[in-house]
Write a structure and sequence with these properties.
Layout: H1 5-13, H2 21-28, E1 31-33, E2 38-40, E3 49-52, E4 63-67, H3 68-78, H4 97-112, H5 118-133, H6 135-138, H7 144-147, H8 151-161
Antiparallel strand pairs: 1-2, 3-4
Helix pairs in contact: 3-5
């Protein structure tokens, strides 16, 4: 689904230091609002598509197609830390084990060539581990939350069996 202009504007206006678990949960996860005492649907989906014009994200030329998840990854992991070693300055490939290996090969080369300091590498690892720690919001991995059947589905199943 393509992001609306106002949702894109909010996303593009994010500053790296604003990204934390509360912001990501509020924007990308269905969650319980204690004040309103109700479940609030996610405002964004990690796969929501957007295009970026030059300057809407660090070091970018026009990017015809990316998604909200890759935008957050770039904003939080790449911007101000790795953009000088990533080709094009913006990582625009879906991240899986193979692609993460490719991404990290650029980092390893930069360390070997003294283009990336040990402190910057440590910051990258801290940020990556933190971002991966909230993976249940990002992907349907095997966790207690994702492996528990939906009550509505169970009720419909039981109704259909009857």
């Amino acid at each position: 689904m393509k992001l609306s202009a106002d949702k894109k504007a909010w996303l593009v206006a994010l500053k790296q230091e604003d990204i934390d678990k509360a912001l990501l949960e509020d924007a990308f996860a269905k969650h319980y609002d204690k004040k309103a005492k109700k479940i609030v649907p996610a405002k964004y989906n990690w796969s929501d598509e957007l295009s970026l014009a030059k300057g809407e994200c660090h070091n970018t030329e026009n990017i015809a197609r990316t998604n909200a998840g890759l935008f957050i990854f770039n904003k939080f992991i790449v911007e101000n830390l790795l953009e000088h070693i990533i080709p094009g300055g913006y990582w625009n490939e879906p991240i899986d084990k193979k692609v993460l290996g490719k991404f990290e090969s650029y980092i390893n080369t930069a360390i070997e060539d003294d283009e990336l300091t040990v402190d910057a590498y440590g910051e990258y690892q801290d940020r990556l581990q933190w971002l991966l720690s909230i993976h249940a919001m990002v992907c349907g991995s095997f966790t207690p939350k994702t492996s528990t059947p939906n009550k509505k589905v169970l009720a419909l199943r039981d109704k259909l069996y009857k």
